[in-house]
Amino acid sequence: MAERTQPPPSKRLCCRHGYGTLRGAQRVDGSSQSEWRTQSPETLLDIAARRVAEKWPFQRVEERFERIPEPVQRRIVYWSFPRSEREICMYSSFNGCGEDVGSSGESDESRLPFRRGIALLESGCVDNVLQVGFHLSGTVKEPATASAPEMVCNVSISFDRCKITAVTCSCGNKDIFYCAHVVALSLYRVRKPEQVKLRLPISETLFQMNRDQLQKFVQYLISVHHTEVLPTAQKLADEILSLDSEINQVHGAPDPTAGASIDDENCWHLDEEQVQEQVKLFLSQGGYHGSGKQLSLLFSKVREMLKMRDSNGARMLTLITEQFMGDPRLALWRQQGTTMTDKYRQLWDELGALWMCVVLNPHCKLEQKVVWLRQLRRWNSVDICPLEDGNHGSDLTNLTNALSQGPAANPDSRTKPHRTVFTRAIEACDLHWQDPHLQHIITEDHYTNCHHQENYNNSLFDDRGWPCEHVPTATARVDALRSHGYPRQSLRLAIAVVNTLRRQQYKQLEFFRSHKKELLHKGMTSVTNLEGWVGHPLDPVGTLFCTLLEAGQGREEATALLMHDFSGTHLLQAPISTFLEEGETFVSLAVETALIGLGQQRVMPDGLYAQEKVSRNEEHLLAKLQEVELDETLVKIFRKQATFLLEAGPYSGLGELLYRESVPMHTFAKYMFTSLLPHDFELAYKVALRAMRLPVLESTVPSSDLSRPQQIVSVVPNRYPRWFTLSHIESQQCELASTMLTAAKGKTVYPKNIHSSSHIFKLAQDAFKIATLIDSLPDLTLLKVSLELGLQVMRMTLSTLNWRRREMVRWLVTCATEVGMFFALDSIMQNWFTLFTPIEATSVVASTVISNSTIVRLHLDCHQQEKLSNSARTLALQCAMKDPQNCALSALTLCEKDHVAFETAYQIVLDAATTAMNYTQLFTIARYMEHCGYPMRGYKLAMLALTHLNLTYNQDTHPAINDVLWACALSHSLGKNELAAVIPLVVKSVKCATVLSDILRRCTLTTPGMVALHSRRNSGKIVSLDKAPLRQLLDATIGAYINTTHSRLTHISPRHYSEFIEFLSKARETFLMAHDGHIQFTQFIDNLKQIYKGKKKLMMLVRERFG
């Protein structure tokens, strides 16, 4: 805390005069300091003085009585200091008296000012303690450390009506909370009051002095502190001696030790400046360095103050809110159109919830509520004020309107106002606590639901005594009672609200049963829950759950609420548990409340943040539920609620009728499933299978189609794809399905309604892994389910792009093989066109199925092997006809062992060669045919490939060059006629001189590496270049060199001259192969010199090399 260095402000004017052992001094741990020591009855003086000291400002006491005896003054002053350590602890640590979270996130209680203050006190560091009236002073010695010398701090504390109103410490510490030295001095006074010197207010002491004593007193005071006070003393003396001075116009003189005046606000000291500075600092750090956690701790501190009924709770919240509203990032985000971070958004939500609690204080004065309402409206009117639902407008109803839960609710009657985080708090200002029935609930333990009133106009209850208030509003009252330190009342109201929810659940079930045939025939109903209770800004289910669970688990506050008033020690005559039904406990009621809320069918809200909040709150509530250990009573509740939810129709997220945009139940159903499974297997699977639905991804059925009674119809405008969390929802759906499969134990469970192929594939893989665990026998039932899921994936991804498709295909074949069923593999191949593309079917599926490893794995006999082989060949031929480009070679390979099938595949290739296949594919198949001993077939295919080829003059590195050379070599080996037939095609397709030259040289030689594959094979005789067919090739080669030379010279640069000269050298070698080649080459060079004489340097190089 930034302790003040100036004198405390409470100095009321005093002009006239009018204190044993401490009783009931409460320590933090709840023990009394000295109550156990005193056995004698308390005197009437102490009883009266203590009551006066708690409630009355001392000025009122002075004005009420003409003269107050000194003993009475002493007892009043004595009892005016705080007697409980709890408030001191609250104002000297972030987390009350619990752990403090440092920047490292670990508990470090020794660093708490409160704990350090206790250590200083217990080590005897507090000295010179003096109480003068309502002012306490003393010195606290800070022991020396390795980094700092010993320090003595002067501490002064002002107090009034059992509250510390001002503190000053010379340590200079800057913080929101009291420093350790203030804590040490305060606790000294609380724990050792008998050791504190007690004096009346200084004005009373001065009144008892005569003139000489007063003069001596003043002179000694000035002498001791002359350097500090002498200028001030002279100034005051001058003013007093001046008759018309302002100081002489006022009766009396200020006394900082005389207590508060009537007009002073009675509240604990809170350094507002430091609160503002700290919040501003945390916000400026933007969530780094644990600032978000520090702000959350500040919010917790506000709640702690509210629970202590400390008015500083609202003051501190106002200061925090002002800093939040002044955050410059709000305007920046609005200007840039970006959203705030998720953690920062959650802090704003907490801010709005805290204001809701503040304005719903049941004992709040009207004037104070008016002030709060005015400032809330001011914040609400600012453009940059964050909206309640994050980024979008809200569809939620007004807080003070009772939401109709009947079947005839009209969704079109909704309004869409501009709602900020403060809107609900503003609306809550209109709520009151004066309803007689509400008062009866929160004040009477023997509450009955048959309580009637004569007049129910503007009542919060119907004519049967049941609450008809908006459920989140009613739970906001519960939270407000809890937050303001009324635990018994909040528990009573919570139980009443839950009883209403259960009654409403029964009514909804009865209505659906009586109208079930009609509703199922129509396939649609009205929306009954426009705003869900899970993910709601007021968190109604979480509030009820925590309130009831704390009572059931006997936590500190819950134990106190069941046995005592908040402020006293009066034992309740009737326990609050009379609210519960027979055999019911607070824990069971809390669990049932959570199940009702989680199972509610509600519309998915708008906006990314609102949808993420639904998911986050659901997971948070389920995490709390999982901490509760299930017993027989809770299992009965689970069975009851599961049955209700399955039969409740449109009111339940697990009912038969589901709106297209209802919040999915996957995560909730997974929890229900795992909880029910050990106790009711069938019911667990009913819940899980029903929850697998995801209608937002399913097409709607026209309402005129009555052939499907459970059609899915959206009753709100279709806003898809506004489901920003759809990916996360689908993952949750997959987790639920995986959980069901894992627990199936030999029973066939086939999850439906999954729309993502990736999630189904993951589910299939999970099922396969579980079914083939190393330490157990394969689960054939689960393997079949895995295979079915895999087949579904194949069908879903057949016509869509999926980067994992090839992995999926390989996995499916592996799974089908692992199932060990011959018929499964055969069926897959016979129906391949519904599962695979032709290339997948031939290259992966068929080849794997007929492999030796599969045959050995399945222990197939000869008949089964032949059956699979026939299916594979049939598949191959079908694929080759459908996609000859990609499947022809695979089809030939698969049909090798069957002559008829092989011939059929070859004919398919020939049919497709002219139109559907390119030269690369044809060359590949041609090489395959030659390799298999069919050189003529390879030759024919190579001829067809050449008709599709076109090599230009500069494509001397084209990948098809090797295929052309191979085709020419094959033709050469087959005979002169074949070579003569291929040469014209080569000349027509290849324009690259170097390639033609290479072919020419190869053709002039024998083919020593060729095996005699045909009767007309070349015997090894050298083919003449002067005769056909090589004469045509030679002429074409020379022509190609001439054309290429001219093309290269058109755009040649000097750095390519040497390369060009080498090219001409190769050209000369080809020219010389002709009988008149020398003459042709000479003429060619002369022409170049004449045509390109402008390229002098190049032509000079040509003359040097070629003359």
Automatic annotation (TrEMBL):
Q: Does the keyword Metal-binding apply?
A: yes
InterPro entries associated with the record: Znf_SWIM, ZSWIM4-8_C
Alphabetically, the GO molecular function entries are: zinc ion binding
Q: Which domain of life is it from?
A: Eukaryota
An annotated GO cellular component of this protein is:
Cul2-RING ubiquitin ligase complex
Keyword entries, A-Z: Metal-binding, Zinc, Zinc-finger
Q: Which residues form the SWIM-type domain?
A: 153-190
Task: Return the protein name.
Answer: Zinc finger SWIM-type containing 6
